[in-house]
C-alpha cells in the first residue's frame, strides 16, 4: 500500500491549525505521518501542537518540530527531511482537505505511473471557513494533465498538490530564495522530470484572509520575475530587465505585470493598476487578444473568492473601467486594435452577464461585441445574444435526458 507523509508548515496560524490537522486526520486513506513544522510561532501554536501530540493515539505518527523562524521554504524542507512516505502531501496550516483528498490523489498517481505529481481543483473559503463562490479548476476534463501553461503562470496551491518523494529527491527541495513563489519554482523543476496529472473534483479549500502572502503586490511581482529569471537560466548577477529576455520571457513578464495590475485595482489603486496594464501590454501585445484579460479586468474589484459571481459585480462599472483603460492607458493601440479590443471586452462582459443572470447586461454587451468585434468574436456574440432571449426554465427542460 502506498504511504503518504503530510507536511504542514505553521507560523502564527493558531486560529486555523486545528482545522488543518483535523482534515488530515479525517482522510479516508489515513496518512502514515503528519509532520507539523512550527516555524518560530509567537502565538498559541506551540501549545496547540503539544496538546495534539499528547492526544495522538490513532497511529498517525503526528510529529511536531519547532525551529527558529526561517521562512516557509525552509519549514517545508525540514518536513521533507523527516518524511518517510512514498508520496508527499503539502497542507498549509490555514487550509483544509476534503476527506477523500489523499485517496483520490493516490489513486490518480497509481493510474499514471509516469506522473511526478497530482493536483486537485480548489475552492476559496473565508477566514471563518465558509465556502466562497470561486472555484479554480485549472484544466477541464476527466483526466487532466498539466501542460506548458505552468511555465508562465501558476494556478496550483501547495495544499492541492501531492508529489512522489523520489521525484523530489531528484529535483531538490524548496528554494529558500523565494517565499511566496517557492512552490511554483519547485513545480517547474518537477515538471522537467514528467507530467502532473489532475482531478477536476474540488478536494481542497483555500482560506483567504488578511494575512495571505499573495496580497503583498510588490513582493509577489518581484518573486515572479525572479522565478522567470531562474527558469530562463539567466546569470544570477544579471539585472532583471524583462524586455531584454529571450522569448517567451517578455510574455511571461507581461503576464506578471497584468497580475500586479489586477491586485492594485482590487486594492483601489487605479493609477498603479493602469501603469502596470500599460507595462504588461508593452511587453506582451498579445495580452489584448486573451479573453482572460477582459474577464479578469471586469471582476478585479470583487473580493477574493468572489470573482465571476454576482456578489459585488457591477457590469456597467466594469465596462466603463475597461473602456477607460483602452482609451486612456494604452496609447499605442491603433483605432482598429482599440475597436477589436472593445469587441472582445463586450464578449467577456456578455458572458459574465449570462453567468450572473443579468440578461439586460448580457444583451447590451453582446451587441457591443457584434458591433466592434472581429469575425470570430461576432459569431460567439451572436450565440450569446440569442441565448439571452431563451428562458432559463426552457433551457433546463431541454437539457434533461
Written account of the structure:
With 401 residues, the chain is α/β, with parallel strands linked by helices. 47% of the residues lie in helices and 15% in strands. The chain has 15 helices and ten strands. Strands 1, 2, 3, 4, 5, 6, 7, 8, 9 and 10 form a ten-stranded mixed sheet that branches. Strand 6 (117-125) and strand 7 (131-136) form a beta hairpin. Helix 12 (335-356) runs antiparallel to helix 13 and helix 12 packs parallel to helix 14 (375-387). It is globular, with a radius of gyration of 23 Å.
Mean of residue pLDDT values = 89
Question: What count of domains describes the coordinates?
Answer: 2
Query: What shape does the CA trace take?
Result: globular
**Beta content:** 5-15%
What is the CATH architecture term of the largest domain?
Answer: Alpha-Beta Complex
The CATH topology annotation of the largest domain reads as Spore Coat Polysaccharide Biosynthesis Protein SpsA, Chain A
Largest sheet: 10 strands, mixed
Radius of gyration: 23 Å
CATH class of the largest domain: Alpha Beta
SSE-based structural type: alpha/beta
Q: CATH H level of the largest domain: which superfamily?
A: Spore Coat Polysaccharide Biosynthesis Protein SpsA, Chain A
Low-confidence segments, ≥5 residues, pLDDT <50? 393-401
Distance N to C terminus? 41 Å
Discrete helix count: 15
The total of beta strands comes to 10
Provide the succession of SSEs.
EHEHEHEEHEEEEHHEHHHHHHHHH
Into which percent range does the helicity of residues fall? 40-55%
Amino acid at each position: 500500500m502506498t504511504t503518504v507523509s503530510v507536511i504542514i508548515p505553521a507560523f502564527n496560524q493558531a486560529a486555523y491549525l486545528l482545522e488543518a490537522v483535523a482534515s488530515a486526520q479525517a482522510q479516508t486513506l489515513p496518512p502514515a505521518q503528519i509532520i507539523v513544522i512550527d516555524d518560530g510561532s509567537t502565538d498559541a501554536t506551540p501549545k496547540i501542537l503539544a496538546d495534539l501530540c499528547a492526544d495522538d493515539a490513532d497511529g498517525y505518527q503526528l510529529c511536531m518540530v519547532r525551529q527558529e523562524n526561517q521562512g516557509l521554504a525552509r519549514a517545508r524542507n525540514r518536513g521533507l527531511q523527516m518524511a518517510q512516505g512514498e508520496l508527499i502531501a503539502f497542507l498549509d496550516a490555514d487550509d483544509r482537505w476534503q476527506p477523500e483528498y489523499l485517496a483520490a490523489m493516490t489513486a490518480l498517481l497509481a493510474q499514471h505511473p509516469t506522473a511526478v505529481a497530482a493536483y486537485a481543483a480548489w475552492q476559496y473559503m473565508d477566514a471563518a471557513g465558509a465556502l466562497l463562490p470561486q472555484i479554480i479548476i485549472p484544466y477541464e476534463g476527466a483526466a487532466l494533465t498539466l501542460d506548458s501553461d505552468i511555465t508562465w503562470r501558476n494556478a496550483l496551491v501547495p495544499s492541492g498538490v501531492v508529489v512522489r518523494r523520489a521525484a523530489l529527491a531528484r529535483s531538490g527541495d524548496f528554494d529558500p530564495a523565494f517565499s511566496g513563489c517557492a512552490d511554483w519554482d519547485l513545480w517547474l523543476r518537477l515538471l522537467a522530470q514528467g507530467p502532473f496529472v489532475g482531478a477536476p473534483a474540488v478536494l481542497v479549500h483555500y482560506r483567504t484572509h488578511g494575512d495571505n502572502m499573495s496580497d503583498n503586490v510588490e513582493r509577489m511581482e518581484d518573486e515572479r520575475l525572479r522565478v522567470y529569471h531562474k527558469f530562463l537560466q539567466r546569470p544570477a548577477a544579471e539585472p532583471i530587465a524583462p524586455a531584454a529576455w529571450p522569448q517567451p520571457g517578455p510574455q511571461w513578464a507581461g503576464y506578471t505585470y497584468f497580475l500586479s495590475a489586477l491586485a492594485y485595482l482590487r486594492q483601489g489603486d487605479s493609477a498603479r493598476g493602469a501603469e502596470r496594464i500599460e507595462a504588461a501590454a508593452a511587453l506582451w501585445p498579445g495580452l489584448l487578444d486573451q479573453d482572460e484579460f477582459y474577464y479578469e479586468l471586469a471582476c478585479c474589484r470583487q473580493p477574493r473568492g468572489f470573482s465571476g459571481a454576482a456578489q459585488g459585480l457591477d457590469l456597467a462599472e466594469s465596462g466603463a473601467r475597461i473602456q477607460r483603460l483602452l482609451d486612456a492607458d494604452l496609447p499605442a493601440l491603433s483605432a482598429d486594435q482599440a475597436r477589436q479590443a472593445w469587441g472582445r471586452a463586450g464578449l467577456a462582459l456578455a458572458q459574465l452577464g449570462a453567468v450572473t443572470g443579468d440578461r439586460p447586461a448580457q444583451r447590451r454587451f453582446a451587441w457591443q461585441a457584434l458591433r466592434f468585434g472581429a469575425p470570430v468574436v461576432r459569431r460567439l456574440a451572436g450565440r450569446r445574444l440569442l441565448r439571452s432571449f431563451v428562458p432559463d426554465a426552457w433551457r433546463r427542460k431541454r437539457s434533461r435526458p
